[in-house]
Structure formats: structure tokens, C-alpha cells
Design brief:
Length: about 140
């Protein structure tokens, strides 16, 4: 019996606009992304792909990143110092994971993107609905 395609991971590459920051992330080819309506996500158009930290690898540009935090300070937002793009960050909802901006992924490995709204005014319920996103499974090796 073949494994379910929802567990088959491909390596996506991506980065910032000027390409100084580059990364890889292991995720399905058909992505489930979140569209958060909090102030920073709404203003920047960030589409979220939250993964366990073990599935993310920063390849280039560590020294090119600036960090920004606000409100509770739990989220660590990283921006390229040169082009200003936030291609990934450590989210408040999943401090053990990495949140990649789907718009910063190179398109050649993406089969499709399904977007679900993350309702920030109802943060507790919205977070509870996505707690599974950073849990490593037996398929992560």
C-alpha cells in the first residue's frame, strides 16, 4: 500500500526578494496555508506555512536578518536588512516551529495552495485548531 500523499514531503526552496536570505523547508507539494488577520500579517500579506523547526533550514543570509518583536514579544519576526522582506519567522502561536511565507517560496515545487483564515480576534480558538502543525510525526525522519 502506498503512503498517503499528505505525508509525502518535498523540499521547497525560497528566500527574500534580493536573494541574500535563502532557506529550504520540507512540506507537502500541496500546501495548506493560513491567512491571519492580525495587524502585521494583514499589512504585509504574509501567507503562513507553519512547520516543525526540524523541517526548516536557513541556507544563506543569517547575518543579513534583522529581528522585530512587538506586543507580547513572543513572536520573532526576521526581515532581510536589504530588501525588507519577511520570508520566515518564529510565530507566537507555535514558538517551537517556523512560519514560512508561502509567497517567498520558489514556485517550481508547489502543486497547489489551500488557504484557511486564522482569526486573530479569536486567537485562542484559532490557535487550538492548528496546534498539530508543529508536531513531528512518525513520517518525519
Amino acid at each position: 500500500m502506498l503512503p498517503s500523499t499528505q505525508f509525502l514531503l518535498v523540499t521547497h526552496r525560497g528566500g527574500c526578494h534580493c536573494r541574500r536570505v535563502r532557506f529550504e523547508v520540507d512540506a507537502p507539494a500541496s500546501l495548506d496555508a493560513l491567512d491571519c488577520n492580525c495587524s502585521i500579517c494583514r499589512m504585509t500579506g504574509f501567507q503562513h506555512l507553519i512547520v516543525p523547526a526540524s523541517r526548516f533550514r536557513l541556507l544563506d543570509g543569517r547575518d543579513e536578518l534583522a529581528e522585530y518583536s512587538f506586543n507580547t514579544g513572543a513572536a520573532r519576526h526576521y526581515f532581510c536588512r536589504h530588501c525588507g522582506i519577511k520570508s520566515f519567522y518564529v510565530p507566537r502561536s507555535h514558538p517551537d516551529g517556523i512560519d514560512v511565507n508561502v509567497g517567498c517560496l520558489d514556485p517550481d515545487t508547489i502543486a497547489s495552495v489551500h488557504v484557511t483564515v486564522f482569526d486573530d480576534p479569536n486567537r485562542d480558538a484559532a490557535t487550538a485548531a492548528i496546534t498539530h502543525l508543529t508536531r513531528a510525526s512518525e513520517h518525519d525522519a
